[in-house]
Amino acid sequence: MRIDVRKGDITKVEADCIVNAANSLGIMGGGVAGALRRAGGDEIDREARAKAPIPVGEAVATTAGRLNARYVIHAPTMERPAMPSSPEKIRAATRAALRVAEECGCRSVAIPGMGTGVGGVSPHDAARAMVSALREFADSPVIEQVILMDIGDAMVDAWRDALGETEA
C-alpha cells in the first residue's frame, strides 16, 4: 500500500472513496463533512443520517454524489457534533474506515485530518494515531493507495513527520 501525503481540497480528489471524519449521528454540518456535503450533494448527508447511529470504531459507506469517488465512508471520531475527540477515537475511526474501504473493494482511499477541527486533537497526535492504524493495513490485499489530504500545512507536516518523511 502506497501512502501519498498531499496538501489540497479533498472534495476535488479522485479516489474510489473519500473518508469523512464523522459524528455518530451522521450529521454533515461543518468542517470536512460540510465541504463534502456542499461539493457532493445533500444525498450524502441524507444517506449518512439514515444509517446512523454509527458508533465510534465503526464506519458506513454512502453514495459520493457529485464527488469524484464511488463512496464516502463515514467514520465517527466523536459521538455528537462538535464534541472533543481523542487519539484513540481517531485510531479506531481510521481502522473502521479502512475496513469498510476493503469491504467495498476500494483500491484508493482519500483521508483528511481526523479529529483535528472541532474534535480538538493536535495535528501531531492525530497524525500518529492515523499512521498507526494505516500501518495495520500495510498488507491489505485490496487497498493499493491511501491519499492523506488536508488544506492545512500543520496536518500535512504532521503526517510527513509521523511517516518519517522529509520535505524535498
TrEMBL record:
Gene3D superfamilies: Leucine Aminopeptidase, subunit E, domain 1 (3.40.220.10)
UniProt-listed InterPro entries: Macro_dom, Macro_dom-like
Entry-linked Pfam families: Macro (PF01661)
SUPFAM superfamilies reported for this sequence: Macro domain-like
Annotated SMART domains: A1pp
Residues of the Macro domain: 1-167
PANTHER family recorded: GANGLIOSIDE INDUCED DIFFERENTIATION ASSOCIATED PROTEIN 2-RELATED, MACRO DOMAIN-CONTAINING PROTEIN
UniProt name for this protein: Macro domain-containing protein
Organism: Ardenticatena maritima
